[in-house]
Amino acid sequence: MGFPNIIIVGGGLNGLGCAKRLTEKGVPFTLITENIGGRVKMSPDGETNYGAYYITADCHTIMPYIKKMNLVHFAKAHFHQGKKQYRVYSFRMIKHIPAAIRLLIEIFRFRHHVQKIRKQAFHTAYRDLIESDPYLKKYYHQKAGVFIKQHGLENFTKEYLEQFLWAAYFTDPREVSTSIFLGVLLTLIVPSYSFVFQFDKLIAPFKKRITCDTVTEISRGRDKRFTLKTASGKSHRCDILVLATPMNITNTLVTPQKIKGGINVNYYHIRGKIKKKYDVKWYSFFPIKDEAVISREANGTYLYFYGRKDRIVHYFDSWEVITKDAWRPALFFLGDEYIDEQPEPNLFLANDHNVPSTEDAFINGHYVANLILKQL
Ligand SMILES: Cc1cc2nc3c(=O)[nH]c(=O)nc-3n(C[C@H](O)[C@H](O)[C@H](O)COP(=O)(O)OP(=O)(O)OC[C@H]3O[C@@H](n4cnc5c(N)ncnc54)[C@H](O)[C@@H]3O)c2cc1C
C-alpha cells in the first residue's frame, strides 16, 4: 500500500508520541525539529532539568523512558517570608489541617477523574473528554481563585501553596484554572520524582526519520499539499502535516487560532555560594511577589527561576553561570480556550495547549497519530 507523505514538525513529547505510534503501525514519516525533547531539556552535564522537572508515578505512558532520580520530599522545602523561614511540618501547619484535609479530598477526586480520561485520551480528544465530564469541565473553566475561596483555602494558600505553586507555573495560582491548580498538587498524594528522560531509547526505532532543522514558512498548493521551507534553505512537500510545535509558534505558521495566555520565566543554572539564610538542602520557596524559586541540585549546583526581575545578587554572594536562559512562554495557563487539533482534513496540531504536562503531551501525540491512522 502506498502511504501519503507525512511530516511531523517538532520533537517534543507530542511530536515524539506521534512518531512512536506511526512507527508502531509501520507508517513512514519525516520528523523535522530544532531539537529532541523541547521543554524537557537537560543541562549539558545531564543532571539538571531546565524545563519539566517532576513526574508523578501516575505517568505510566512515559515511564518506560524515565530514569527516576530523587523522590520529591516536601518536608525538605523551606518557605521564606521576609526574615522568617519555616518548613512544611511545623507548628504553623497545625491551624491549616482542616483546610489541608478539604484540599486533599478534592485532589483525590481530581486524580480519579484524570486517571479515567487519560485511558481514553489515546482515541478521544482531551477537549471532548473534559467537556463530557461535568467535574473536569467545571474545573477547566473555573479560576483557581474561586475554588480557593469556596473551599476556605485562602490562609493555607497564602502561607504554603502559593509559594510552591509559583515554582510550578510561575504565576499567581489564583489566575490559573482549578484543574491546573489541582493537577500540580497531585504531587502531594502521588510519589513524584525528578528524572532523566531517556530520549535515545524512545527515538531509536525512528531515528533515521529525524531531520534537525527549523521550519520557517508553510504554504499550500491548489492540490492541498503543504510546502515547508526551512532555515537551512531546504524545501519539503507533504500530504499530511502534523505541527507539534507550541501554539505560539504554530500560530505563526498556519491560520492562527485564539489561544490562552502564555507565562514567561527566566532561569539561571549556577555554581556558587548562596547567602547563608537561603542555604537549605533542597528548595527555597518565596512569597509570590518575589517571583523566585531556588533549588539546590543533587550535584551542589543551583537552579534559580525568576519572573520579571533578576535578583541574583539578593540570593547569592558569588556565582559562576553554567547556563542563563528563558522559556518564552513556558506554559499556556491563562484562560480556558481550547484549540482544534484537526483544523483542516490534512492538518493536525499536536501540542500541550489544551492539557499540559509531559505525560499528557505524549498521550496527545499518540491521539493525533491515531487520527491520522483512521484516515489512511
Ligand atoms: C519550566 C517548565 C517546567 C515544567 N515543569 C513540568 C513538570 O514538572 N512536569 C510536567 O509534566 N510538565 C512540566 N512542564 C510542561 C511540559 O514540559 C510540557 O507540557 C511538554 O513538554 C510539552 O511538550 P510538547 O511536545 O507539546 O512541546 P515542546 O516540548 O515545546 O516541543 C516542541 C518542539 O517543537 C520544536 N520546534 C519549535 N518550533 C519549531 C520550528 N519552527 N521548526 C522545527 N521545530 C520546531 C521544538 O524544538 C520542540 O522540539 C514544564 C514546562 C516548562 C517550560
TrEMBL record:
Domain annotation Amine oxidase: ranges: 15-256
GO MF term list: oxidoreductase activity
A Pfam entry, by short name: Amino_oxidase
Transmembrane region(s): none
Taxonomy, superkingdom: Bacteria
Signal peptide (UniProt feature, chain positions): none
Name assigned to this protein: Amine oxidase domain-containing protein
Species name: Candidatus Magasanikbacteria bacterium CG10_big_fil_rev_8_21_14_0_10_47_10
